Amino acid sequence: AVYNHYKRVQNNLYSETGLKPTVRLMGYGSTGILPGEIAGGYKFDSKLGGKSEHSKLEDFCKEKGISLFTDYDVIRFNKTGNGFSYQANSAKNAMSKIATLFAVTPIRRNDSSVMYRLLSREKISTAVEKVVNSANKSNVSGLSFSTLGTYAYSDYDDKIYAMKGNAGIAELAELVCCVKIICKKNPTFVLF
Question: Cβ distance 60 to 21 under 8 Å?
Fold first, then answer.
């Protein structure tokens, strides 16, 4: 499985260089690196080895002292699931229409058929809380929220947010504090 490949690569890096890499695991859900359900459906795709292989990878990394962060995309999605509706929970543009974007992948530059939307700002904290609760139930030692840390967008469905105009900096800081409070498992790291 793919997780076994990650283990071999990390083991080779460590044995060849003596350096312990920091690894951000991305694209573990059923749609890979492309948007699908929020946070990859909060599960590890069976084609990649599933939850048990991910757990073995976590154990391997802990044993070797390698930091492993599992990345959860809580911003981009194109499927309904886990309490988030593709229609009702999408961010709106200035004309109160659902904002739709297209994924561009380096491998398939000319494919513009992968449409996605951004999660409404009012649902982001719920998505993050679900990630943390899911991680607390499984063997996930490091959390990563790369899209949360890099996407600043307006959601005109949220009138109070749209009037503030601060690109969500205060909300992001509040979410970081929320994640630290909710994380009960030791040690859980957060990487944005």
Answer: no
State phi, psi for 166 to the nearest 5 degrees. Answer: -105, 20
CA dist., res. 142 & res. 130, Å (int): 15
Task: Please tell me the total number of residues recorded for the chain in this structure.
Answer: 192
Residue 71 near residue 99 (C-beta atoms within 8 A): no
If one counts every other C-beta atom within 10 angstroms of the C-beta of residue 112, the result is 10
Element (H, E) at 118: strand 115-118
User: CA–CA separation, 58 vs 142, rounded Å?
Assistant: 9
The one-letter amino acid at 14: Y
Tokens representing 162?
């749209």
pLDDT tens digits for range 105-125 = 666 555 556 788 999 988 988
**Angle at alpha carbon of residue 104, lines to 98 and 108, rounded to 5°:** 140
Contact 6, 48 (CB under 8 A): no
Q: What is the SS3 assignment for 32?
A: coil
pTM above 0.90, yes or no: no
Sheet containing 189-191: order of strands:
22-25, 67-71, 142-144, 189-191
Q: How far apart are CA 163 and CA 187, in angstroms?
A: 38
